[in-house]
Structure formats: C-alpha cells, structure tokens
Amino acid sequence: MLMIKIISLAFVIVVCVIIIKQYRPEMAVAVEVAGAIVLLTYIFSLIKDSFSFVDYVLNTTGLNSNLFSVLLKIIGIGYLTEFSANCCVDCGNSSVASKVLLAGKLTIFVLSIPILKELLDLLVSVMQ
Amino acid sequence: MKKLIFCLCLFLAICLLPCVFADFSDEQMDAELNEITQNELSNLDLTKIDEMVTLDDKFQTIFKHTSFTDKVNALLSGESIDVGSFLSVVCHTFFEDFFSLVPLFCTIIVISLLCGVVNTLRSNVGDSGVEKIVNFVGVCLVVVVLFSSSLNLAQSVGNCVTNLKGQMDAVFPVMLTLVASIGGVNSVSVFQPLMAVVSNVIVQIFCYFLLPLVFLMMIFCVINHISSVKLDKFSNLFKSVFKWGSKGTFMLTTVSVLVGGVMAGSFDNLSVKAAHFALKSYVPVLGGVLSDGVNLVAVSGMLIKNAVGIGGIILAVSSLVLPIISVLAFSLGLKLTAAILEISSLKVSNLLLNLSNVIELLITILICVGFMYLISLGILINTANIF
C-alpha cells in the first residue's frame, strides 16, 4: 500500500514540476527537491520496520554492534551521497554534485577509521 | 672333600629342581612377571609425561585416564583401544566446532549482502567511487571478523606443536632407557641423537619457520583481496617454500629414523641372542635357570616399554585430533560461505576460498609433526622386541 502511495506521489510531483516549468521555471527545481524530500520521508518509514531485523542479526551472529552500526552508517551515507549528487546533476549543477560525492567519500573514510585501525592492529599482532 | 662338594652340589641341584619346574608353571610365571613388571613400573619416573595429560573434557574422552601412569597400568592389564568411542568423539567435536562457527559465517554473509546492496547504487555522475569505497570497508570488516578467528586457530596449532614437543621431550628419554634396559644398546646409541634432532631442530623448524610462513601467507591473501596491489607471486613463493620445507623435513627425518632403527635393531637382536646362548651354554647347571630369569626380566621391561610407547601414541593422538578437527571445521565453513557468497559478492567469496586454502596448511604442519613423532615412537616400540 505504501509503495502505491509513493508511486502516486512521484507522479503528482512529476506533473507539478512539468506544469510549473511552463509558468515559473525557476520554481520548478524547488518543487522537485521538496517532492524528493517528501518521498524520502516515506522511504524512511519503510526502513524503520527493518531495524528489528538488524537487532535480530546482531543477536544471532554476535557481531560487535559498534562495527555493525558503522557499516550501516556507511551504507546509508553512500545512498544519501548518491541521491544528493544525482539531484544536483538533475538541477544542472555537476560541480556541486562532485563536491557532495567528495564529502560523502571523506565521511565514509572517517567513519571507517575504527575498522581500519582494528584491521591494522590484527595485522600487527600477527607480525609480532 | 671332593665327595662333600659333590654331595652339596647334588643337594642344591635337587633343591633347585622343583623351583626350575615351578618356573615353567604358567600361573606362577604370570604372577612373577606381573610382580616384576609392577616393580619396574613403580621405579619408572613418569611424572614429566603425567604433566602432559590435561583434564579437558574432550581430551579425557579420548585418553580416558587422568594420568599417564594410570594409562600405562591399564594398557598392561589388557585395556584395548576403543575405536568406536574415539570416532564418536571425533564426529561430535567436528559438528560442535562447525556449529559454533555458524554465527561467524552468518556475520560474514550479512556484511557481504549489505555491501552488495550498495552495488545497486548507480550514479548519473559517472563513476562516483562511493560504491567502491563502501565495498572496501565491507571487505575490511569481513577481514577483521575473520582474521581474529583465524589467528586464534593458528595459535592453537602453534600450542599443539609446542605440546607435542613437550611430549617428545618427556617420552623419548623414558623409552630410550627402557630400550637400553632390555639390551637395545645399539638402538639407543643410534636413536638418542635422532630423537634430539626430531624433538628440537625439526619441531623448531615447524614452529618458528613454517608456522610464521602461514601467517605471512594469510596476510598476503588479505592484501591481495582488499587492495588493488596484487602479491600473487609472493604468495606463490611462500607456498612453494612451505611445501618444499615441510616435505623435505618430513622425508629426511622419517627416512633417517626408519633406516637407523632397522639397522640398529638387527644388531641388537644378534647381540642379545648371542648373550642368551652364552648364558645358557657356558654357565654349567644354572645356565638355563639364569637365562629364563633374564628372559623374564627382559620381557617385563619390553611390556613396559611397549605400554609406555602405546600410551605415548594415544596421548599424541588425543592432543592432535582436536586442533585438526577445529581447522577442518573452520576450513569447511569458509568454503561453504564462499560458495553461498559467490552469487552476491565475488570478491569476498574469493577471499574466503583463498583463506581456507591457506588455513589448510595448518593441518599439514600438525600432521607432519604428529607423524614424525608417531613414526619415531613406533620404531622405538618395535626396537628390541627380541622374545
């Protein structure tokens, strides 16, 4: 049902953007971005239910929850970075898109430092 | 005077005659043999070997005794090796180890699948690189999760090799003393330096050269899969050094122990038989009795030697089996996970497969060291079995 809502909303946004582009083209981008944000909120409500699954995975596998949350954050940041970069490209701002991508990569790198540190510690312990 | 001496000799001979006949009675012979064996065993210092017996549940299920002396006593009283319970312990341990690793492999599958989700990211900016960096972090996390377990396994293998060395240091001197006590002097002179080489040099080669080589291969395997730098040539070099090192060491040791043992054993057989013949033929009147007495003492020594040897073999097998099963279960689990992940993440799948191949080398180390020890013990058991 939620998916039908999302699809309907997407169509409404597309129609609105097409109509507004004819009369006020400068406002079309704003409408497009606002529509995308509304869509994202719906998508997040979809993901919300899957958090219990994450808990289940953590309990079953005994994986370090810190490392797992870092991985989830990295995947989320990856998605958001791509989404924002695509939005910027759609609006004709490729240079801003590349900056967003750079920021995303840097954030992922900073977040992955604990994992890299642990890997390095393991390798050092092997060498010792 | 001559008559008196003759009468005395005749009297003594008549007195000893029933004893001689009594010696040939089976029950009395067994009782006497048991007594001598127990006496010899009580004089034998087995405390060093006793220290090698652990009270771990799985070990105890295979070894079945809390001390080595008890085991030797049980073997001397005719305890047989229970193959059925041994196999059931092996199977039980394998499945227990395998199922204890299931959460680890589930973790790897979940991480790989989550990273695989990011592969669906398609940018209209071109090659954004976000997908690659997320995959890199995912592989790093898999390595972190996997490497700590692999490291524990390699350390347990190292501990097992050290434990085997301790067993060699404790069992070989006792065995050599027992071989010497039953007339295997030539064998002892051949075996003493050989056993020293086996327990010190060879085990050191495996512990301080070949085992670190496996660690290095693990590291190169990881580097090959998490970075664009390929170190295949280095990996192959280490692999062939390991292969030739283990094969060469094993061959040299086994051949020298076998040849030395067979040669020295035949010399001992000859000299002991000659001594028996001399005792029987050249000592008048009492020669036969003395020869039988010597036989009895030598047979009891031989029984103890064989019991200590077989006890040593059981002790070594009990120590070897558990780490080998753990490595096998881990390797099988890695291969299974690699097969599952082949569809979603080829990179992680290849990493797991290569790592499982490297980890299997740990089994080679255990089997080589164990076999060298068992062959040496087997040769010592068969040495000086003259009667």
Summarize the structure.
Chain A contains 6 helices and no strands.
Using the alpha-carbon principal axes, give the shape of chain B. elongated
Name the helix and strand elements of chain B from N-terminus to C-terminus, one letter apiece: HHHHHHHHHHH
Globally, the shape of chain A reads flat
Number of helices of chain B: 11
Main pleated-sheet profile of chain A: none
Whole-angstrom Rg of chain A? 20 Å
Distance between the termini of chain B: 43 Å
Helix content of chain A: over 70%
Content-based structural category of chain A: mainly alpha
Enumerate the spans of chain B where pLDDT stays under 50 for 5 or more consecutive residues.
Answer: 10-24
Number of helices of chain A: 6
State the distance separating the first and last CA atoms of chain A: 58 Å
SSE string of chain A: HHHHHH
Major sheet summary line of chain B: none
Name the poorly predicted regions of chain A.
none
> What would the average pLDDT of chain A be, to the nearest integer?
82
Q: How many individual β-strands of chain A?
A: 0
Number of strands of chain B: 0
Give the largest chain-chain interface (CB within 8 Å): A-B, 36 and 36 residues
Describe this structure in words.
The complex is a heterodimer of chains A (128) and B (387). Chain A contains 6 helices and no strands. With 128 residues, chain A is mainly α. Chain B has 387 residues and is mainly α. In chain B, helix 2 crosses helix 10. Classes of the chains: A mainly alpha (128), B mainly alpha (387). Chains A and B meet through helix 3, helix 4, helix 5 and helix 6 of A and helix 6, helix 7 and helix 8 of B.
Write the layout of secondary structure elements.
The complex is a heterodimer of chains A (128) and B (387).
Chain A (H helix, E strand, L loop, with lengths): L1 H22 L1 H24 L2 H11 L3 H26 L3 H18 L1 H15 L1
Chain B lengths: L1 H22 L2 H18 L3 H4 L6 H7 L4 H9 L6 H36 L11 H52 L3 H42 L5 H51 L4 H55 L4 H37 L5
Helix pairs in contact in B: 2-10, 4-10, 5-10, 6-7, 6-10, 7-8, 7-10, 7-11, 8-9, 8-11, 9-10, 9-11, 10-11
